[in-house]
C-alpha cells in the first residue's frame, strides 16, 4: 500500500526531545521554544513569532488579539479547513464566504471588496497548497477599508510571495505543524506571527492565559497578574524540541518534497496536454513548498471512479475540503457572498496524490502508471 501521508522524520528528533526531557523546564517557553521562535522570526522577518499548541489555536489567538466581538464579520474562502472559520465564529463573528480562483484554489481577491460591510473586521486569506494568495491586492483593500489581514498559512511554511515569507505579510500570520504538514512538532503544533507592532504586547498576554507573566519575568512590571482574556496556548518543550530538529533540516525536507512535486509534474504533463486532467498552477510571483500535489478530474463522477481505481491498486489518494458554506455549521454561522461559480465545482474535481518527505521514485512511478492506465484504458 502506498500511503497518502507520512509525518516527516529525520532521526535526530530523539536527541533533542531527550535533551528537553532532562531539563528542569518542560512545560513551554523554555530553551527549545526560544530557539524555534528565534528561527522563525529570522526566517520570516516577522516582528515576533510565538509557538502555539496548534494552528487552530494560533487563529483563535488572532481573533482575541484583534478584539473580535459578536456581530463582527470576517471574510474568507469557503474552500478551507473548518478551523479557519471556527476560530472567528467562536468569538461571535459572522463568517462571510467568497468565491475562489479556479487556477490556485485561493480566495478570489477581486470578490473581497464587494463583501465588505460596516461590520467587517478582518480578511483571512488561506494559502492553499502553500501557494500564495494575491497579497498585494488584499493588503491594499485592507488598508483602504481599515481592516486586519490574518494569513492562514497553515500549509505555507517555506513558501514566499514576491520574496516575502507567507505569514509575514498580513498583520498576523499562522503556520501549522500537524503531522500532515511539511514540518511537525510531534503530531500537533503551530506558530503565530505578529507583524503589526500594536499587537505585540497583547499577543504574549493572550498566549499566557491573559496574564503579564512574560513581562514580569523580564522585569517590565512589578506584579504578575491577570490583565485580560487569554488561554493556555503554549506547547511543551518536548514538542518544541521535536520541531527544532526539523527546523535545522528545513531545506533538506523542502528540497526532497520539491523533487517529488517536480517528478509528478514532469511525468503527468502529457496527460494534461491531452486533456485528461488538470495540474497545479503556480503564479510567477510565488515560490511554493510542495505541500501537496493535486490533479483535477473532469467532474465528481470521474473523481469517484479514480479514487476506487487507486484503492484497487493499493494507493491511497484523497480529496480535500467540502466547502464550508454548504455544511450545517456553515449555514448557521456564515453567509456566501456573491455567486458560487468555482468553489463547489472545483472542489469536486480535486484529488490529492501521495506526497511526503522520503517518497520513493518507485512509489511515484506506480502512482503515475496507475493514472496513465486509468485515463488511457
Structure description:
The protein has 377 residues and is an alpha/beta fold. The protein folds into two domains: 13-247, Type I PLP-dependent aspartate aminotransferase-like (Major domain) (Aspartate Aminotransferase, domain 2); 250-376, Aspartate Aminotransferase, domain 1. Helices cover 37% and strands 13% of the residues. The chain has helices at 13-21, 31-44, 55-65, 82-89, 135-145, 200-207, 213-217, 237-247, 250-273, 300-312, 328-333, 343-347, 361-376; strands spanning 48-52, 73-77, 94-98, 120-123, 148-152, 160-161, 164-165, 172-176, 190-194, 286-287, 294-296, 334-336, 350-352. Helix 1 packs antiparallel against helix 8 (237-247) and helix 3 packs parallel to helix 4. The longest helix is centred in the C-terminal third of the chain and has 24 residues, at 250-273. The protein is globular, with a radius of gyration of 21 Å. The mean pLDDT is 96.
Amino acid at each position: 500500500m502506498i500511503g497518502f501521508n507520512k509525518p516527516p522524520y529525520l532521526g535526530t528528533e530523539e536527541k533533542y526531545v531527550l535533551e528537553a526531557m532532562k531539563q528542569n523546564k518542560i512545560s513551554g517557553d523554555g530553551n527549545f521554544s526560544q530557539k524555534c521562535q528565534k528561527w522563525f522570526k529570522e526566517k520570516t522577518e516577522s516582528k515576533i513569532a510565538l509557538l502555539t499548541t496548534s494552528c487552530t489555536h494560533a487563529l483563535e489567538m488572532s481573533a482575541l488579539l484583534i478584539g473580535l466581538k459578536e456581530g463582527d464579520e470576517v471574510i474568507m474562502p469557503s474552500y478551507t479547513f473548518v478551523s479557519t472559520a471556527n476560530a472567528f465564529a467562536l468569538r461571535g463573528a459572522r463568517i462571510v464566504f467568497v468565491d475562489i480562483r479556479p487556477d490556485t484554489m485561493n480566495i478570489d481577491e477581486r470578490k473581497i471588496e464587494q463583501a465588505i460591510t460596516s461590520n467587517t473586521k478582518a480578511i483571512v486569506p488561506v494559502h492553499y497548497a502553500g501557494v500564495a494568495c494575491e497579497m498585494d491586492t488584499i493588503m491594499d483593500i485592507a488598508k483602504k477599508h481599515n481592516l486586519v489581514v490574518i494569513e492562514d498559512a497553515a500549509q505555507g511554511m517555506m513558501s514566499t510571495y514576491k520574496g516575502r515569507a507567507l505569514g509575514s505579510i498580513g498583520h498576523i500570520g499562522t503556520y501549522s505543524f500537524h503531522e500532515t504538514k511539511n514540518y511537525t512538532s510531534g503530531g500537533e503544533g503551530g506558530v503565530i506571527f505578529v507583524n503589526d507592532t500594536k499587537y505585540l504586547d497583547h499577543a504574549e498576554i493572550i498566549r499566557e492565559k491573559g496574564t503579564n507573566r512574560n513581562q514580569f519575568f523580564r522585569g517590565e512590571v512589578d506584579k504578575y497578574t491577570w490583565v485580560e482574556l487569554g488561554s493556555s496556548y503554549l506547547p511543551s518543550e518536548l514538542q518544541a524540541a521535536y520541531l527544532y530538529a526539523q527546523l535545522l533540516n528545513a531545506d533538506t525536507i523542502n528540497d526532497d518534497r520539491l523533487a517529488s512535486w517536480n517528478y509528478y509534474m514532469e511525468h503527468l504533463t502529457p496527460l494534461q496536454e491531452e486533456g485528461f486532467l488538470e495540474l497545479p498552477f503556480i503564479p510567477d510571483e510565488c515560490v511554493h513548498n510542495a505541500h501537496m500535489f493535486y490533479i483535477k478530474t473532469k467532474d465528481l463522477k470521474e473523481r469517484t471512479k479514480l479514487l476506487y481505481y487507486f484503492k484497487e491498486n493499493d494507493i491511497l489518494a484523497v480529496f480535500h475540503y467540502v466547502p464550508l458554506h454548504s455544511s450545517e455549521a456553515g449555514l448557521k454561522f456564515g453567509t456566501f457572498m456573491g455567486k458560487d461559480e468555482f468553489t463547489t465545482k472545483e472542489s469536486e474535481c480535486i484529488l490529492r496524490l501521495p506526497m511526503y518527505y522520503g517518497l520513493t521514485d518507485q512509489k511515484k512511478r506506480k502512482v503515475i502508471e496507475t493514472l496513465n492506465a486509468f485515463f488511457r484504458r
